């Protein structure tokens, strides 16, 4: 068939498709609510208005699909983070699991306190204690092995107060938002203070975010051979802390474009939101404000975990969207299967 | 319209499309050569066989599109690298451009030699001299400013022997290969020893590879404010060297999956090819061997730039594909416009 013949047939198909589907699609779009767990109100409206603006071809705020970069914090934004970051609860469970191979930990802080169940005592020893707990439990194995360890833990561990598996404590409205943005040709990235390998272990399955779209804190890796087979060994040395002012740096290193939409919940996300919402062209910044002591937790300016203080002021100054979890979200977690 | 009605109409459209396009498409596929700049032979056949295997749904070697990760070295693999890495030629031009603001360079090595046109003398001062030239010319500005500087240089600078703009010295057969893999739902990444920001400045336009799919060496960045506006300042400190054993590390940090296809041209790519071609499941490794002294350059085991020595042995041991540039490539550079 000639190219001309092919073009003609394509045009006929397009025409027929238009006639057959036109009205039906229009009706479907009008009736479909992409964000059913969001109550009608300012937050939902602001999201939908922004998406409508940047996807309106020919409009003044149109953004090409390749540039529709949306970045999401993880802890407290996509899943819960109380009473402690879940990755730290994983580390504590690992200390307990590894203790039989480390009899010396009985007399060695911060492990001794942890093993006696005195979490408060362990944490009171300061940042170096936390770093040591993380380094010890996140190194000394290959990246593939670590991925397996995290997967096993996520499949069996339960949250201390809700009793749910941790991956059931993702926020249903945010899952809908991720899907909604992707349906509008956004590329969704996670930009987390948590460990990049830890979050990748569940991000694709739970959030639909592939590993190459996860930006996080990292330890150094070493390419080496074990029995003739190459692997990437996780070392106990910090490589990069993707938090606070580190978030725009992590975004540039991994994405290399300025996002046009950013979603966070704490002061650790402030630089990321500032970076996103001072770019040229349209942009959108949103803070999830934890206001629901009954269904989730209520905390902000004075919380040890997920402190949101400067960020609340910046949101007011910048006209950013602040989600009132209690009133804006119809559901918190996904429905039980 | 009911969902049932919509489904029925969709089915009708699919049927009509099939009738109208079926035969035409089949003919087009049979006649279309996706790699016209590749001569028929083992290299071309090996590439096409691999792609056919991993895309054959239901076949034993089928790989899901999300896992079709292909990684490409840049210097010597996607564009030329003689007589010196083009990024280093950029750095030399920058030294000359900045010299009026740095009168002290007249008496300060390695700049004094460079400014006298004594490149050999500058390079003979060793690795610290090279690092200093790169650090000086690649820091002290924001990422956005650097992107503009590289863009201006690429638009005006000419290669010292060919007289071509540098971006005209990309390899036409490799451009076809990138397109061919993407048409088969591969995700193509550049994994370069060169600077991540330098390569991003032209990768999207020249290679169709967006910035988030460029992995490279990097300097440290700092998030800071200038006149109330945030920016990312490029610091003179090395962050990561994405070469040799660093390449699998860079791949894990950025992509988080093991590639199934890797393309390189030097010993600096060996670890990347080893990492790719020892994974479970189907994999493909290819070295571009520079054998064409007439149309490009001929060099391998003893070259200062792009040395390919251990890699040639590993390719023979591993049964990797080795492209003989002179005989396998019908064209080297894209046709002149």
Describe the structure.
Two copies of one chain form a homodimer. With 337 residues, chain A is of the alpha/beta class. Chain A has two domains: 38-84 and 170-328, HAD superfamily/HAD-like (Rossmann fold, 3-Layer(aba) Sandwich), CATH 3.40.50; 86-156, no CATH class. Chain A is built from 13 helices and seven strands. The first copy, chain A, has helices spanning 3-31, 42-55, 86-98, 111-115, 119-123, 127-137, 143-156, 172-183, 196-207, 246-254, 270-276, 310-318, 325-328, and strands spanning 69-72, 187-195, 214-226, 229-240, 261-264, 284-289, 321-324. Chain A has a seven-stranded mixed beta sheet with strand order 4-3-2-1-5-6-7, sandwiched between helices. In chain A, α9 (196-207) links the parallel β2 (187-195) and β3 (214-226). The longest helix of chain A is centred in the first third of the chain and has 29 residues, at 3-31. Chain A starts with a helix and ends in a 9-residue tail after the last helix. Mean pLDDT of chain A is 92; it is low at 21-28. The interface between A and B is large, with 50 and 50 residues.
CATH architecture of the largest domain in chain A: 3-Layer(aba) Sandwich
- End-to-end gap of chain A: 52 Å
Helix fraction of chain A?
40-55%
- Rg of chain A, please? 23 Å
The structural class of chain A is alpha/beta
Count of runs of 4 or more consecutive helical residues of chain A: 13
What fold name goes in the CATH topology slot of the largest domain in chain A? Answer: Rossmann fold
Largest sheet of chain A: 7 strands, mixed
Largest interface: A-B, 50 and 50 residues
CATH superfamily membership of the largest domain in chain A: HAD superfamily/HAD-like
What is the CATH C level class of the largest domain in chain A, in words?
Answer: Alpha Beta
Shape of chain A: globular
């Amino acid at each position: 068939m000639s190219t001309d013949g092919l073009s003609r047939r394509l045009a006929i198909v397009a025409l027929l498709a238009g006639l057959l589907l036109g009205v039906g699609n229009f009706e479907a779009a009008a009736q479909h609510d992409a964000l059913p767990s969001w109550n009608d109100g300012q937050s939902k409206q602001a999201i939908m208005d922004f998406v409508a603006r940047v996807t309106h071809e020919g409009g003044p705020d149109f953004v090409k699909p390749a540039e529709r970069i949306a970045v999401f914090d993880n802890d407290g934004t996509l899943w819960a983070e109380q009473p402690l970051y879940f990755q730290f609860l994983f580390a504590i469970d690992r200390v307990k699991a590894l203790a039989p191979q480390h009899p010396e930990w009985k007399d060695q802080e911060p492990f001794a306190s942890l093993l006696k169940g005195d979490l408060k005592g362990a944490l009171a020893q300061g940042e170096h204690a936390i770093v040591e707990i993380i380094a010890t439990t996140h190194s000394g194995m290959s990246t593939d092995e670590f991925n397996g360890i995290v997967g096993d833990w996520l499949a069996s561990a339960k949250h201390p107060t809700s009793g749910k598996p941790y991956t059931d404590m993702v926020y249903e409205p945010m899952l809908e938002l991720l899907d909604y943005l992707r349906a509008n040709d956004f590329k969704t990235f996670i930009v987390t203070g948590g460990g990049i390998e830890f979050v990748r272990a569940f991000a694709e399955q739970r959030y639909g975010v592939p590993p190459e779209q996860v930006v996080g804190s990292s330890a150094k890796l070493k390419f080496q051979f074990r029995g003739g087979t190459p692997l990437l060994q996780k070392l106990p040395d910090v490589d990069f802390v993707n938090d606070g002012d580190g978030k725009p740096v992590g975004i540039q290193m991994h994405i290399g474009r300025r996002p046009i939409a950013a979603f966070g919940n704490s002061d650790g996300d402030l630089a990321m939101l500032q970076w996103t919402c001072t770019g040229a062209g349209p942009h959108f910044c949103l803070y999830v404000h934890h206001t629901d002591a009954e269904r989730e937790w209520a905390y902000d300016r004075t919380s040890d975990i997920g402190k949101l203080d400067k960020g609340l002021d910046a949101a007011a100054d910048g006209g950013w969207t602040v989600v009132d979890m209690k009133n804006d979200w119809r559901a918190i977690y996904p429905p039980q299967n």
